[in-house]
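Record type: monomer structure entry
Structure origin: computed from sequence
Chain ID: A
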Amino acid sequence: MEDLAAYLRVAARCAPSEFPPWSDAPEIHFAEIARLWSEIRPSLRHDLAVVNDVGERLGAMLSAFEAGDAARAREIAEALSGVDLAGLRY
């Protein structure tokens, strides 16, 4: 859960050309967000409307990144970085 939150914070704050040296390339970074979500999603059982909304917004963020709309991807990542994912687990 913490890893996904950290990846979202980096995606929200860094344009693809500004990713920190310790981070993977932007393409790998966004692929890792998708992988982490697919692992975490089955364990989220509380407030499924919010869980589904997060999933939809993650999909929109990844689509924006793939379409080259880094500003939109960062905007969505910023919004998602404020969601209490751990609170959705129970």
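Annotation 1: The mean pLDDT is 88.
Annotation 2: The longest helix spans residues 48-66.
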